[in-house]
Each structure stands twice: as structure tokens, then as C-alpha cells.
Amino acid sequence: QVQLVESGGGLVQAGGSLRLSCAASGRTFSAYAMAWFRQAPGKDREFVGQLLIRGGETYYADSVKGRFTISRDNAENTVYLQMNSLKSEDTAAYYCAQASGVGSGYDSWGRGTQVTVSS
What we know:
The structure is a single chain. The protein is mainly β. Helices cover 0% and strands 54% of the residues. The protein has strands spanning 3-7, 10-13, 18-25, 33-39, 46-52, 58-60, 68-73, 78-83, 92-99, 106-109, 113-118. Strands 2, 4, 5, 6, 9, 10 and 11 form a 7-stranded mixed beta sheet that branches. A 4-stranded antiparallel beta sheet has the order 1-3-8-7, with no helix packed on it.
């Protein structure tokens, strides 16, 4: 069982930056992938980006490509989402998720952290 805890959300002006953290505990950080999703009020949950643990490859949604960056600190069992040039449409609850293996889907989720971008 793995527990994921997000932090770092808050209120920021458009054009600003935030860095979200996702701390993993409960087992070694040896999953297949880590990802960030977001959900705005009244909208479906949306994929933001993912990091493949073994090779370190990252993939991003077109809506955040070039502005958001996923990274990790293995020693701290933490994954980060650096968000730059924030827009009002980035306002959402952001969730960290882990895929335990290839084909498992994202089977562990955090409770989310709110990001609000004011225009």
C-alpha cells in the first residue's frame, strides 16, 4: 500500500509560478509511473503529465506543455510539478497518482491540493 500526499497549492496571479509536491510513503518508490491530474469544478478529471520511473521520460498534456515540468527526488520519495506561466484555466484541484505496474492503471491517488490562478 502506498500513500500519496500532495502539497504546495495556493492562490497565485496569472503569469506566476507554483511548485506542487507529492510525497510517497508506505513502500519503496519503485512504481512504473507517477502522474499529475487535475479537476476543475464541473469538469472531468484531466491528465496533466506523467513521469516513467525507470527511464525518466516525461509526457505532458498539450495544454501545459512548455509551462509545466515533472521531476522527482528519489531520496525524498517525492515527485514535483513545477508550474510556470500560470493561466486562469489552470485553476483546479491537482492530484498525484501512481501506477504500480505496466497496465495497472493509476491505482494509488492522493487527496489533492487546490490551485487557484487569479486573472
